[in-house]
Amino acid sequence: MQIGEVAARTELSLRTIRHYEETGLVIPSARSQGGFRLYTEADVARLMVIRRMKPLGFTLDEMRDLLEATDRLDTGEAPAAEERDRLLERVRAYEVTAARKIEDLRIQLARAEDFAATLRTRLERSARP
Questions:
Q1: Which pTM value belongs to this model?
Q2: Which pLDDT band holds residue 79 (cuts at 50, 70, 90)?
Q3: Diameter of the chain by CA atoms?
């Protein structure tokens, strides 16, 4: 599929997808005869991983590291047991970090909701004659 369809499916801008290509996070699987970027379902899945990591504050280097580990785990040839264990440990560390960041976001969201409720209450009191 072309970049426009990928952008629509991933809810990422064309500019963002191109940026991820420039940084080496996602490389189009092919180019059309006219030079248009062509992406596969695997490319879309990779972009979705990146899209999900971004709001959690992961850096491009962290995204690259995780994708490298999962790419290695997903290759047709199974890595040796020792390497597999190292790769799984890297992925596990990202899962733990993601869970911690999600909890931090939940706390921030609760505080924001409390703030909004305080404002609503104030407005309701002020609106009464």
A1: 0.83
A2: confident
A3: 75
